[in-house]
Amino acid sequence: MSQFAINIMFVGGSFLLYIAIAIWAKAGSTSDFYVAGGGVHPITNGAAIGADWMSAASFISMAGLIAAGGYANSTFLMGWTGGYVLLAMLLAPYLRKFGKFTVPEFIGDRFYSKNARLVAVICLIVASVTYVIGQMAGAGVAFSRFLEVDSTVGLMIAAVVVFVYAVMGGMKGITYTQVAQYCVLIIAYTIPAVFISLQLTGNPLPPLGLFSTHVDSGMPILDKLNQVITDLGFNEYTADIDNKLNMVLFTLSLMIGTAGLPHVIIRFFTVPKVADARWSAGWALVFIALLYLTAPAVASMARLNLMTTIYPDGTAAEPIQYDERPNWIKEWEITGLIQFTDKNEDGRIQLYNDSEAFAPTAEARGWNGNELVVNRDILVLANPEIANLPGWVIGLIAAGGLAAALSTAAGLLLAISSAVSHDLIKGSINPAITEKGELLAARISMAVAIVVATYLGANPPGFAAQVVALAFGIAAASLFPALMMGIFSKRVNNKGAIAGMLTGLAFTLAYIFVYKGWLFIPGTNNLADTPENWVLGISPLSIGAVGAIVNFAVAFVVSNATEEPPVEIQELVESVRYPRGAGQAQDH
Amino acid sequence: MSGHSYDAEAYWKANLRLIFGSLIVWALVSYGFAILLRPMLAGIPIGGTDLGFWFAQQGSILTFIALIFHYAWRMNKIDEKFGVHEE
Fold it and tell me: Which residues in chain A are contacts of B38 at CB distance < 8 A?
């Protein structure tokens, strides 16, 4: 059977599984299978949150960025897990007690203002659309490879599939479908990692393999990797970095963004009890950590495997002939995501770092520039092929990558469409809208979001995980401070919250757009996105943390200069702090 | 909660104390050990690199999990002690 057929079988099979579970769950009972119906155990809910949370950024893109950046990109690992500590302690239990269904609803009620709710809707839409751009970029890479088409065609196919998937919407609400998606995703991610860890270190557990001895060389695997890549002019994988301010701010931005993203928060609105909100956050992080502890191992081992593929006889010997390149390079060349140009016309593939420091060595070896450009978003998907794993493992990773991208994209599109139809139109523009009209508005806003995200996803402002990181920065600077102050301060009033959200959002967006292009349209940036141009060395990916500080500061100053919130609002804040009497989540 | 305002205040303070302690650990393992204090941990070797690298790629994640479960467990006790737990 061809690899193409195996891929189709695995991807098709996993989709049939989700649909079958959805139908079975709907038929089986009226309420038990829905999250809102209660009775879902925190462990089950944790797995569902894991599927919702881990997207193309975590699954497809993150390990590739860690592989390229080494220690410096540990920020993704800490940032996308540490946020759950904030969620569990600062937001989830209290928002559960409050008992509403959407984030703008909480902000509108707590800050007793329709305008606050509107501003929250805007923040939510900007963050979520940016997030979807990243998902489209990742899903596009996956489709282009598995259907063996150009990456732009892959993106178009992804857009159609995501739209159909999101419109089928009902599947999202069913916890057990998401549990199934989690299972597919985690199996697909860990199986190749186990094989590769065994091959390279003899240890079947990838997180331990990362710190074990490399079988072929007898050195610790990280030492071996450092040696191989420094021989080719790259920085050491484990080297410390100078710009710690940026590293701290980037990690902080991802952490508070995690706690500010509406599609994650709403999962906690519907657990049966306040105590369950805390446990669910813990279990969610356990399930997420299974992937996040595997990812750094995948990153370093895949990078080492890539280097040994190109330099089979060691870095001192000649690299492989282009004509004898392995099949996976040929396959990825079709997508345009691996590109080879024989700059010195010797028929071999020279892969090294075109740095000034390495130029003399390269010249002495007769090299005329780096000849192989590998898109970082392909590393995880290509990983099993690079390691020569059997065809079914490659099919499995296709199914896993698509499960990750589609489940999160659909969740985000639902968050966007409910913000538009429920919070924006029904909540303020036209409260008398019919249910049919509300549904139509939801569908239209979904379609618009997909078109925008697909257009911008064709030339994304970074690799998938980087685009998603921008979305986290936006959520961090706008929604998280408002939510946290709404619970922990009785003094912050409507004016303070609105001023805080608007300045946090405007500040962060402006800084991002200056470097990434206005509205992410390529070519409209004012400054090149390079470290020399960044203010104090703070990258656009890290600015969300600064935006959050601005938001907090503005909200406090404005609130203290204006009147106290009314007594009933202060009582509301008091009541969300105590678990007793939570009851069921209330629909508007 | 109006009839128990003293207890309510003590409950909230106990919660804030627990959150504060947890967040100190949270910041120490990630921003501390993994980033700012890494040079100080450079002397402790672990599998071809140093302890700071381990905290950046694994240790902080494991600590986060422990922190959340500890918080959930302690808060359940505190909820019961102050009588604000759900039936």
Answer: 240
Cβ contact, residue pair B60, A285, below 8 Å: no
The band of B1, judged by pLDDT with boundaries at 50, 70 and 90, is very low
Per the CB < 8 A criterion, the answer to whether A332 and A338 are in contact is yes
What pTM does this model have? 0.91
Output phi, psi for A375, to 5 deg.
Answer: -65, 130
> Where do the domains of chain B lie?
2-81
Q: How far apart (Å, rounded) are the C-alpha atoms in residues A260 and A502?
A: 15
Query: Both tokens of residue A19?
Result: 């649909």
- Using an 8 Å CB-CB cutoff, list chain B residues near A581: 86
pLDDT, tens only, A74-94: 999 999 999 999 999 999 999
Per residue in A188-238, pLDDT tens? 999 999 999 999 999 999 999 999 999 999 999 999 999 999 999 999 999
Partner residue opposite A578 with nearest CB, options B1, B30, B64:
B1
Residues of A in contact with B46 (CB under 8 A): 211
In this predicted structure, what is the pLDDT of residue A584? 52
Q: Calculate the alpha carbon distances from A410 to A145, A185, A339 in Å.
A: 21, 16, 32
Note whether A244 contacts B47, CB cutoff 8 Å. Answer: no
Q: Where are the domains of chain A?
A: 3-306+385-576, 318-372
Superfamily of domain A3-306+385-576: Sodium/glucose cotransporter (1.20.1730.10)
Q: Predicted ipTM? A: 0.94
CA distance from start to end of chain A: 53
